[in-house]
C-alpha cells in the first residue's frame, strides 16, 4: 500500500510514518517545521530498508502540497491511503483571537485537509478504491474553553469526514476520523506538569495517550472493513 501522511516531522505524524513504513508500506509525507527531525526520520527509515520519501510543504498552500503529493506518487505509486494529520493548536481567550489567528487555524486545520484530499482523489476515483483518515481532536467533539478556533476547526474536520464518506462511499472510498485526547507530543508543550496531572486524574484510563496509540488505530482503519464516516475518539475515556 502507498500511504501519504501530512505533518510528519514530529509527534503523531512521525509515529504514523514509522508505523506504516515498518509494516512494509511505501510512505510519503510532508512537514512544515522541525526540518532536521524530518531529514533524520527519512535517513533512519531508509537505513532500516523502508520505502519513504518526504517533502517540506505547507498543507495550506495547495500548489506546494499538490507538488509534494505528485512527487511522492511518481516515486512510490498512486496513494492508497491519505492521513490528514498536519495541524496547529493555540490557546487564547475568544476575545483575544485575531482575524489572523482565526484564518491561520482554518487555513491549516481545515483547508489543508481539503487541499490534500483534492490532490489524491482523482486517482482514487479512477481506481474506485482508497482510504482517507482525518485527525481531528476530542475538542472538535466536545469543545475546549480558550481553544474556540481550534475546536471549531476540528469540528469542521468531523463534518467534512461524515459528508465526504457519504459522497465517496459509492466510489469505494472510505473516509474516517480519529479524535485523539491528550497525546504526549510537543503540541502540548504549553501544558504545565500540574495541568497534565489534572488531565490524568480526569481520565478513566489514568494516563495520557502516546502517538503509538493513534498510529495503531490508524493501522486498524487502513485495513479492510465495513467502516466509513466514523469519528473514533481515542482519549482514555476523558470525554465520557
Ligand atoms: P506536533 O505539533 O507535534 O506536530 C505537528 C506536525 O505537523 C509537525 O510535523 C509540523 O511540521 C506539521 N505541520 C504543522 N503545520 C503544518 C502545515 N501548515 N503544513 C504541513 N505540516 C504542518 O503535533 P501533534 O501533537 O503530533 O498533532 C498532530 C495532529 O493531531 C494535529 O492535527 C493535532 O491537532 C492533532 N491532535 C493532537 C493532540 C495531542 O494532544 N497531541 C490531540 C488531539 C489532536
Keywords:
alpha/beta, globular, 8 helices, 240 residues, binds nicotinamide-adenine-dinucleotide, seven-stranded parallel sheet
Q: Helical region count?
A: 8
Biggest sheet, strands in spatial order? Answer: 3-2-1-4-5-6-7
Unreliably modeled segments: none
What fraction strand? 15-25%
Q: Distance N terminus to C terminus?
A: 35 Å
Task: Name every ligand kind in the structure.
Answer: nicotinamide-adenine-dinucleotide
Radius of gyration: 17 Å
Largest beta sheet, briefly?
7 strands, parallel
Helix content: 40-55%
Mean pLDDT: 98
Number of beta strands: 7
Backbone structural class: alpha/beta
SSE order and pairing:
Layout lengths: L1 E4 L5 H12 L3 E6 L3 H13 L4 E5 L5 H15 L4 E4 L14 H29 L2 E6 L2 H5 L5 H21 L4 E8 L12 H9 L9 H12 L8 E4 L6
Bound molecules: nicotinamide-adenine-dinucleotide.
Nicotinamide-adenine-dinucleotide binds next to helix 1, strand 2 and helix 4.
Describe this structure as you would to a colleague.
The protein has 240 residues and is an alpha/beta fold. Helices cover 48% and strands 15% of the residues. The chain contains 8 helices and 7 strands, in the order βαβαβαβαβααβααβ. The protein has helices at 11-22, 35-47, 62-76, 99-127, 138-142, 148-168, 193-201, 211-222, and strands spanning 2-5, 26-31, 52-56, 81-84, 130-135, 173-180, 231-234. The protein has a 7-stranded parallel beta sheet, with helices on both faces. The longest helix has 29 residues, at 99-127. The radius of gyration is 17 Å and the shape is globular. The chain starts with a strand and ends in a 6-residue tail after the last strand. The mean pLDDT is 98.
Amino acid at each position: 500500500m502507498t500511504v501519504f501522511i501530512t505533518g510528519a516531522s514530529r509527534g503523531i505524524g512521525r509515529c504514523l510514518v514509522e508505523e506504516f513504513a515498518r509494516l512494509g508500506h511505501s510512505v510519503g509525507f510532508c512537514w512544515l517545521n522541525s526540518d532536521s527531525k524530518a531529514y533524520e526520520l527519512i535517513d533512519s527509515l531508509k537505513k532500516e530498508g523502508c520505502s519513504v520519501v518526504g517533502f517540506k510543504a505547507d498543507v495550506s498552500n495547495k500548489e506546494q502540497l499538490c507538488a509534494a503529493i505528485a512527487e511522492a506518487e511518481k516515486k512510490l505509486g498512486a496513494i492508497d491511503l491519505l492521513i490528514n494529520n498536519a495541524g496547529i493548536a493555540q490557546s487564547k481567550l475568544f476575545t483575544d483571537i485575531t482575524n489572523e489567528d482565526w484564518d491561520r487555524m482554518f487555513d491549516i486545520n481545515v483547508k489543508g485537509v481539503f487541499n490534500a484530499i483534492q490532490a489524491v482523489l482523482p486517482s482514487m476515483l479512477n481506481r474506485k478504491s482508497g482510504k482517507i483518515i482525518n485527525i481531528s481532536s476530542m475538542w472538535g467533539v466536545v469543545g475546549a474553553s480558550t481553544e474556540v478556533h481550534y475546536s471549531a476547526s476540528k469540528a469542521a474536520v468531523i463534518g467534512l469526514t461524515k459528508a465526504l464518506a457519504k459522497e465517496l462511499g459509492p466510489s469505494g472510498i472510505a473516509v474516517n476520523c480519529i479524535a485523539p485526547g491528550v497525546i504526549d507530543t510537543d503540541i502540548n508543550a504549553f501544558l504545565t506538569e500540574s495541568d497534565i496531572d489534572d488531565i490524568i486524574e480526569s481520565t478513566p484510563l489514568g494516563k495520557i495517550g502516546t502517538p503509538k496509540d493513534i498510529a495503531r488505530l490508524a493501522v486498524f482503519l487502513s485495513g479492510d472493513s465495513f467502516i466509513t464516516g466514523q469519528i473514533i475518539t481515542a482519549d482514555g475515556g476523558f470525554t465520557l
